[in-house]
Amino acid sequence: MPKNLEHAAGLERAGELKSRIQDYLDVEKSIETGFRMRERSQKNKEKIMRYFNAKEADWNNWGWQMKNRISDVHILKNFIPLQDFEVKELDEISRQFRWAISPYYLSLIDTADYRNSPIYKQAVPDIREIQNDSGYDDPMGEAETCPAPTITRRYPDRLIINVTNQCGMYCRHCQRRRNFEQKDTHASMANLVLALDYIRNNEEIRDVLITGGDALMLSNSVLDWLLSELDNMEHVEIKRLGTRTPVTLPQRITPELCAVLARHDPLYINTQFNSPMEVTPEAKKACDRLVKAGVVLGNQAVLLKDINDNAHIMKKLNQELLKIRVRPYYIFHAKQVKGTAHFMTNIETGLDIMEKLRGYTSGLAIPTYIINAPHGFGKTPLLPNYMLALDDEELTIRTWENRVIKCEPMEPDKMKSGF
Ligand SMILES: *Cc1c(COP(=O)(O)O)cnc(C)c1O
């Protein structure tokens, strides 16, 4: 082939591939991330610190962040220009549902445009929580799959221990909202001991998820004890913690906590970033510390209307996560939880997002889209369909670019001889 034509086909294809990403490149620069909005959140932080008369060391202390969580609209309105009707609504909701925002998470809100802020929507109650009562309190029937105190078992080889109902923040879209109407309570030691007995006596359990609430609301010493008990069971191969603190309270990820976690490998932490705005320098620092402690990080996003129900935003979120070494694991279709109907999306929206991830970005940035079957029958993946037909003669597939390709079934006993 003449030298000048050598790369012609490759160049043409490259041009075609470049055109595949143009619509994303056109909007990418306008997608806000925690890093891009740094200046604004720093200003918010200074204002909040002045209000609380706090020092930098207070801000960086998770105890201070927890103690000064904002859960009163009359304090919130010092930072966000709420209108009178909103103050009234928030007062009304507060009588029924708890809410609490850490000063840190509050600092991420764009106060000039708070009604459209994905941070505000996740943290501050909306009147629709009490106006629309469609949905269920316990859509997954967790109460029905509880063989021992604090345990939810829905699969053959793994289970959940719910160690607390406490969280750094009470996400408005929470699937366990029914648990946070009450006060903060950790599981009693007696119940944890019963839960551990159950695991000890059921040797097929090889994977134990400690969650809640938020697993990292437990003290370092209780976590250390619980993880040690699990380490002492030979059949428990891995442990996982469910926590949203890297997102809502990254100050919780202290060197002391990481020293504890480092003693209990193999340990996985799944967290929940839902917006690229949540991927901040503070979140990165928390994740860096966890990775250095040998923890493997994953993300379980929830598909939420007007927060991340858009392929470009979801792609940016997952790419931002890879930069801080958090591997996208699941995107959950929102459950029909009473008080959260305004967050729900159509399944088509989720499938469209999946369609626009595969091929268009790193496989590492592609989580599995999951819908939860009713009655606790388990997580079920939903996927665009890529296999159109298969018989003895022929396989028909559809590629990420929507090319329909017929080929030989690529199976060992159907291989034709070459030449
Ligand atoms: C989600 C969940 C698990 C873990 O499921 P994976 O798909 O392994 O992440 C285990 N037990 C219960 C009850 C769950 O809800």
UniProtKB/TrEMBL annotation:
Cofactor: pyridoxal 5'-phosphate
Top enzyme category: isomerase
Key words, A-Z: 4Fe-4S, Iron, Iron-sulfur, Isomerase, Metal-binding, Pyridoxal phosphate, S-adenosyl-L-methionine
PROSITE patterns named among the record's database cross-references: RADICAL_SAM (PS51918)
Protein name (record): Lysine 2,3-aminomutase
Record Pfam families: LAM_C, Radical_SAM
This protein's record includes keyword Isomerase: yes
